[in-house]
Amino acid sequence: MNDLLVLAASNGENLRLAERFVAAATAHKLRAEVLDLTALELPLYSPRAQAAGTPAVLPALETTLAAAPRWVICAPEYNGSIPPVLTSAIAWLSVQGSDFRVLFNQRPIAIATHSGGGGHTVLAALRLQLAHLGAHVVGRQLVSNGANPAKESSIADLVERLSSMQAPRP
């Protein structure tokens, strides 16, 4: 079981950022791995897609997420908001079972971005959505881009903050 799961919502710079979070977690003696959402065969969520049946990958995704007590989400800014791959994954997860918040309730989550633009609006949108779902989002966030790369000390600080937060009860 991992102590930390790092979700990457792109297969570019945010995947590389996610890998840096795993390295920092490992340096803190935590078990961590990257979950690349772009590698999943998860169709875009819609009511029609839901009516067609649960995607085969969804139960494994839900199990992986539930098993990790803490998450980091690395997501680029898409048109001033959350990237579709992440929004769709959250939507699919929210229609499973009778309590759509169960996967998120009390879960410590840190948010980070490497974006071509400012990156602040994706983190604001993500913070709002995760709080709505019941997560405990770390107050500090990480914004990086080509002109302002993520500092190792900032990544390590977020890992430390996450590791000190109480995980949800099973």
Structural write-up:
The protein is globular, with a radius of gyration of 15 Å. The longest helix has 15 residues. It starts with a strand and ends in a 6-residue tail after the last helix. Strands 1, 2, 3, 4, 5 and 6 form a six-stranded parallel sheet that branches. α1 crosses α6. The protein has six helices and six strands, in the order βαβααβαβαββα. α1 links the parallel β1 and β2. With 170 residues, it is of the alpha/beta class.
Provide a short characterization of the protein structure.
The chain is an alpha/beta fold and 170 residues long. Helices cover 39% and strands 15% of the residues. Strands 1, 2, 3, 4, 5 and 6 form a six-stranded parallel sheet that branches.
Descriptive labels:
single chain; alpha/beta; 170 residues; 6 strands; 6-stranded parallel sheet; globular
In quaternary terms, these chains amount to single chain
Q: Compute the gyration radius: what is it?
A: 15 Å
Q: Note the main sheet.
A: 6 strands, parallel
Uncertain segments = none
Series of H and E elements: EHEHHEHEHEEH
What is the 3D shape? globular
Number of helices: 6
Beta-strand residue percentage: 15-25%
Distance separating the two termini: 14 Å
**Number of E-type strands:** 6
Structural class: alpha/beta
Helix content: 25-40%
Report the mean per-residue pLDDT as an integer: 94
